[in-house]
């Protein structure tokens, strides 16, 4: 099976009450960990590449590694551009064989966002085969590449904007802001309460916005960015092995599971993979200070990333056995 776009994948996910995991990849071990986990769970999957990943690994390496994963697993896999900054970057990826792109003009005024998104959609949809386009309305807090949005400067998606935006742009899916954010520090400690173990409990996502958006866009796939849960098990391993991650906090998995049962068809996860990889490598070095073969320590990181992806598919996304 060749790389696929998100059209059929999202239609099935919407009707089936589950979501597809969109995992960021930057190197071979991450691609392998994600796709081997998906294979063992019989799950479709989206591999997404950011501008930072393109800079780090070169687009051609990422494309070839993802193609190798398709051949190795036989799974339906989408190769997606994450946070495409402008038309040129989206065009470059479409021309280079990506099957889906995100144009992220969410920081621009409404009319400008529509204009840029519409232009990308026209180009992507005229491409043979059809390339799907994700757009965004509203802004998340946190860090994406070199752009940092401070807590307090984020803005929730306004449900009253979504019908006009989708109609005028022709986008295939829409990322909305309902309280998730990028990175491993999603909420300031002051925004949270603490449980009996001192672990931070964040404020709930704005399900009222999600429900209003999906009422206005029946059957239309919604995307959640910034959806790592920052599992404390991995934070603990990192901190016990020389790391210093203080007050790292994510989106509770229960809330993501609930979102996946509603209109959310794509859930973006990157930070949780970074934490797992780092936990595996730090633990390895601490246990084996004499090791210097990268296959040994990166191999342990890869194993933890695979465990995380399996857990997400089975317990959060519900996309297992959906092929
Ligand atoms: O949304 C951001 C993703 O986590 C990608 O991060 O831009 O550092 O590759 P990156
Ligand atoms: P996290 O930082 O929560 O993993 O979000 C990743 C993301 O949204 C990529 O686009
Ligand atoms: Zn994102």
SSE map:
Blueprint: H1 7-16, E1 20-24, H2 28-41, E2 45-49, H3 51-57, H4 59-73, E3 77-84, H5 87-95, E4 100-103, H6 110-126, E5 132-137, E6 142-144, E7 147-149, H7 159-169, E8 173-176, E9 193-194, E10 200-201, H8 207-216, E11 222-224, H9 232-240, H10 253-261, E12 264-269, H11 271-287, H12 294-317
Parallel strand pairs: 1-2, 1-12, 2-3, 3-4, 4-5, 5-8, 8-11, 11-12
Antiparallel strand pairs: 6-7, 9-10
Helix pairs in contact: 2-4, 2-12, 3-4, 5-6, 7-8, 9-11, 11-12
Description of the structure:
There is one protein chain. The chain is an alpha/beta fold and 323 residues long. The chain has one domain (7-317): TIM Barrel (Alpha-Beta Barrel). It is built from twelve helices and twelve strands. The protein has helices at 7-16, 28-41, 51-57, 59-73, 87-95, 110-126, 159-169, 207-216, 232-240, 253-261, 271-287, 294-317, and strands at 20-24, 45-49, 77-84, 100-103, 132-137, 142-144, 147-149, 173-176, 193-194, 200-201, 222-224, 264-269. Strands 1-2-3-4-5-8-11-12 form an eight-stranded parallel barrel, surrounded by ten helices. The protein has a two-stranded antiparallel ribbon with strand order 6-7. Strand 3 (77-84), helix 5 (87-95) and strand 4 (100-103) form a beta-alpha-beta unit. Helix 2 (28-41) crosses helix 12, helix 9 (232-240) packs parallel to helix 11 and helix 11 (271-287) packs antiparallel against helix 12. The protein binds glyceraldehyde-3-phosphate, 1,3-dihydroxyacetonephosphate and zinc ion (ZN).
């Amino acid at each position: 099976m060749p790389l696929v776009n998100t059209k059929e994948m999202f239609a099935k996910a919407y009707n089936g009450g589950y979501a597809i995991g969109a995992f960021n990849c930057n190197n071979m071990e991450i691609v392998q960990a994600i796709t081997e986990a998906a294979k063992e769970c019989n799950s479709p999957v989206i591999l997404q590449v950011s501008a930072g990943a393109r800079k780090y690994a070169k687009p051609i390496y990422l494309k070839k590694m993802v193609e190798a994963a398709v051949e190795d697993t036989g799974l339906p896999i989408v190769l997606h551009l994450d946070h495409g900054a402008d038309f040129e970057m989206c065009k470059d990826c479409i021309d280079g064989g990506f099957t889906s792109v995100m144009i992220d003009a969410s920081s621009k005024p409404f009319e400008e966002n529509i204009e840029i998104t519409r232009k990308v959609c026209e180009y992507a949809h005229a491409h043979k085969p059809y390339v799907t386009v994700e757009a965004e309305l509203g802004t998340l807090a946190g860090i994406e590449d070199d752009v940092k949005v401070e807590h307090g400067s984020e803005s929730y998606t306004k449900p009253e904007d979504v019908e006009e935006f989708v109609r005028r742009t022709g986008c295939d899916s829409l990322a909305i802001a309902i309280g998730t954010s990028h990175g491993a520090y999603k909420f300031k400690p002051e925004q949270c309460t603490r449980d009996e173990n001192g672990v931070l409990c964040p404020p709930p996502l704005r399900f009222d916005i999600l429900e209003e958006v999906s009422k206005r866009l029946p059957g239309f796939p919604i995307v959640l960015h910034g959806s790592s849960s920052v599992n404390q098990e991995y934070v603990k391993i990192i901190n016990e092995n020389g790391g210093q991650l203080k007050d790292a906090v994510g989106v509770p998995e229960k809330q993501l599971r609930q979102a996946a049962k509603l209109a959310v068809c794509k859930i973006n996860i990157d930070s949780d993979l970074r934490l797992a990889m780092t936990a595996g490598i730090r633990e390895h070095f601490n246990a084996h200070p004499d090791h210097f073969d990268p296959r040994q320590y990166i191999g342990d990181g890869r194993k933890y990333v695979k465990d995380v992806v399996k857990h997400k598919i089975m317990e959060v996304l519900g996309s297992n056995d959906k092929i």
